[in-house]
Amino acid sequence: MSKLLEVRGLTKRFGGVTAVSDISYDVGAGEIVAVIGPNGAGKTTLFNMISCFLSPTNGEVYFKGNKLTGQKIPQLAHLGISRTFQNLQIFHNLTVLENVMMGAHVKLKTNVVNAAFRLPRILKDERIAYDLALDAIHLVGLEELMFEQAGQLSYGLQKQLEFARAIVYKPDLIMLDEPMAGLNDYETNRMADYIKKLKSEGSSFLFVEHKMATVMELADRIIVLDFGKKIAEGTPDEIQQNAKVIAAYLGEEVV
Amino acid sequence: MSKLEKILYGNRLKPILFLVGLILILPLVVKSPYIFTILILIGIYSIVSLGLCLLIGYAGQISLGHAAFFGIGAYTSGVLTTSFELSPWIALTIGMVTTFFIAYIIGIPILKLKGHFLALATLGINIIFYILILGLNQLTGGAAGLIGIPSLSLFGVPLTDKLFFYFFVWTAAVLVLLLSLNIVRSHVGRVLRSIHDSEIATETLGVKVENYKVAIFALSAAFASLAGSMYAHYITFVAPPTFYITKSILFLIMVMVGGASSVWGAILGTTVIMFLNEIIRFVGHTYFGISGEVEIVVYGLIIILIMMFLPKGLIHVISKPIQKLKPKKKVSVKAHKDMISQKGV
Amino acid sequence: MELLMQYIVTGLTVGSIYALLAIGFVTIYNITGILNFAQGEFAMIGALTCITFANAGLPISASIILAILISATIGLIVERTAIRHARNTTVIILIIITIGVSTFLKGMGLIIWGTNPKQLAPLIKMEPIHFMGAVINPQSIFIFIVLLILLAVLYVFFEKTYIGSALRACEKNPRAAKLMGINTSTMSALAFTLAAALGAIAGILITPITDATYEMGFLIGVKGFVGMVIGGMHSIPGAVAGALIVGLLETFSGGFISTFYSDAITFLVLILVLFFKPNGIFARASGERV
């Protein structure tokens, strides 16, 4: 049985520096996999390689059995992969509603030509987008702010917005780059609830995160990176007791 | 217009009816042929501004070379109707199609550039075009230009009469406006504005950003070409200085002064600048005795002030109070979902 | 062979003018991130102001110095008014503001000096020199010497003085510079003033060779810009090299192909450079963090 996402021997060298070295792991359907590691471990580089923002020096990624490496970024959404960004890339000048409606793009057939001439397809697409968007907005509880400009929202709400936009079309794999960064406890728990809800509906998650409590609570499996190499992989319990992991984070053996 | 469209974008009919009404009423009020010429030119230049507005305000790109596309239309029409005696309508269409393709092909590599580099590249295109029309003087008349371009005629009626041409130009302008509104008030409009805010995120959502940028670039070029053709048939004479960087900058100023993020801003900006142009020239020549393009001092000053203090353009001065007047929309998800599941909404 | 020599000399002369403008561009760009489309207008202001003073009877050296000072002051005023207020807006708005400044200054030039071209007597009254078969206008040598001297002065300024180092720090990392107590706002004003002065010098140097009009700024400014892009936007030597290349390109294509199309060729080269080596032809590949 092939997994949803297969990462095989991903390596990235920048000139003389090896940022990521020979990483392999899988993500199965309906699984939540977290990637953790100290700063500089190569998590974001790995993430960017999987989401086709960087081309690997070596190695490949497969999604639903097909080769993902080398695809252009727009292709990913059509395959069922979406992602969020560490530095938040919401559309500041669009309303909350418009931001989320953008997430429905892969489900629509609107283009410049049929839009210019206002063919019936356009209205149909607007309804589809609106319908899907309403569901996502309802999930994250942003109904009251639907017509507000996204740029005016607080940081925590913007993160929820980006999340909502990423899940609108119910992707198979959702990649989150530090989804909890900058959130307080309440907001963190809320985001965790959304992730759990979507998992129960069949989505898989791959995320990079620093907040250990959340990672331990949410993840089915955890991958630990240090200096670009995978030093451990396992369930939360296994990882918490892994000596190498403890050493990596604390720098030395803890007696 | 569907209820959904109204919720998302507001009423579309009111401003259109206002504009159409204005277009119909003005000939009754305005008797001076001089002012009529200005109104006609406003119509022609508005077509360019509309396209440029889509490119700059919505897609977030820039062009300092649109006079080149304006010129391709003008010269195609001029040359094909004089040297080759083609019908002006055919020449106009050929002009638009040619410009579209040229802009598309140039656009593919050029729109990979951003910001200053893109501005510089479009500048280069304008200069290359300018030099070409000066150089290929067998075809284009060189520095002396092309004269004797025939007027357009509709159903055998020559559109030399100012009134007829006025209605013709503004019908075209309103059609271009409607086309632009359609684009803007649809998913494509959202896509363009998303590209403006974050190309990366837009790509992640499955949008082939390059294609959209090039498409809008080519479309705006085609609009400029249409305007150029109409210009050629109206003035019946074209010469290179009209199509130099100064014109491109003028187009840019028209769009930014009016407000690039609004299609209505483009028309407003064009109108304001054209009238300002006449007023300043008059004052400058009559009271100060200065000849030449005096008005550029005011253009420069205005665009600086607007970019500093009113970057959203003059249209914002009008639209902001209108927004404040509208009641805040309350949304219940269930009610909305019921609404859109009904047919005909 | 003589022709070649002639082209080289002319090309380097013209290129030196562009180089002075390119240095101004690079300075402003690296310190403020802004591309100053009004750079060419400073040359126009310098040239016309100098001519006005000289024709009014002032000794030439006083006219030159006054012209440079006036241009530098205008550069400062532009920065303090238009630029400073808009520092934090988008790239496109900044581009448009400098275009607006350029248009405004050009218009003021028209109002003050009218449309008739103005002349200045050559600064060096010498017989033309014959060198390797080429006839060299002494003015050309003068221009080249001035460029070299300025480059030397700027080198000392940027590398050896505190202010120069502060300017360079602003270029590398404005935030860190601020934290080190460098006033980036002052640096920005300084950059514009310096660029305006250099532009004025360029304009003054060129007037004995060609006439000065209110329109002269645009094209030479843009060519200085092209030089900067070709040579690399991040270094003064690169920009100078690029500008000299533009000058040579112009002269050679003018000589061998046609003077008429030489500008078109220059811009074609610009576009090709933008496509293939946007960091300049001397740049090594640079990485980018996503």
Automatic annotation (TrEMBL), chain A:
Span of domain ABC transporter: 5-252
InterPro entries with a match to the protein in the record: AAA+_ATPase, ABC_AA/LPS_Transport, ABC_transporter-like_ATP-bd, BCA_ABC_TP_C, P-loop_NTPase
Keywords, alphabetical: ATP-binding, Nucleotide-binding, Transport
Cited Pfam families: ABC_tran, BCA_ABC_TP_C
GO molecular function, one term: ATP binding
CDD domains for the chain: ABC_Mj1267_LivG_branched (cd03219)
UniProt xrefs under PANTHER family: CONSERVED COMPONENT OF ABC TRANSPORTER FOR NATURAL AMINO ACIDS-RELATED
Protein name per UniProt: ABC transporter ATP-binding protein
Source organism per UniProt: Robertmurraya beringensis
